[in-house]
Amino acid sequence: MFSSFIFRVLWSLATTTSVAVNPTTYGLRALLGDVYS
Fold first, then answer.
1. Rounded to an integer, what distance in angstroms lies between the CA atom of residue 8 and that of residue 22?
2. How high is the pLDDT of residue 13?
3. How far is residue 21's CA from residue 36's CA, in Å, rounded to a whole number?
4. In Å, what is the CA distance from 10 to each residue of 3, 15, 33, 35?
5. One-character DSSP codes across the chain
6. How far apart are CA 14 and CA 7, in angstroms?
7. pLDDT beyond 80 at 31
8. Alpha carbons 22 and 20: distance in angstroms, whole number
9. What is the pLDDT of residue 37?
10. What is the pTM of this model?
C-alpha cells in the first residue's frame, strides 16, 4: 500500500517533469536546427 503511494507520487513527478522539459528540448532543437541549417 505504502510503496504504491510512493510509486504514484514519483510517477506524477516524472510526468510533470517531462511535460515541463518537453517544450524546452523542442525549443532547443529548433534553435539548433536554425543554427546548423
1. 21
2. 93
3. 22
4. 10, 9, 33, 36
5. -HHHHHHHHHHHHHHHHHHHHHHHHHHHHHHHHHHH-
6. 10
7. yes
8. 6
9. 62
10. 0.51
Cell 504514484 locates to 8
What is the residue whose three cell numbers read 536554425? 34
Q: Which three cell numbers stand for residue 22?
A: 518537453
pLDDT of amino acid 33: 87
Q: In this structure, what C-alpha cell is assigned to residue 31?
A: 534553435
Q: Is 37 exposed, middle or buried (0-12, 13-18, 19+ CB in 10 A)?
A: exposed
Lookup: cell for 11: 510517477
| Residue given cell 510517477 in the structure block | 11
In this structure, which amino acid lies at residue 3?
A: S
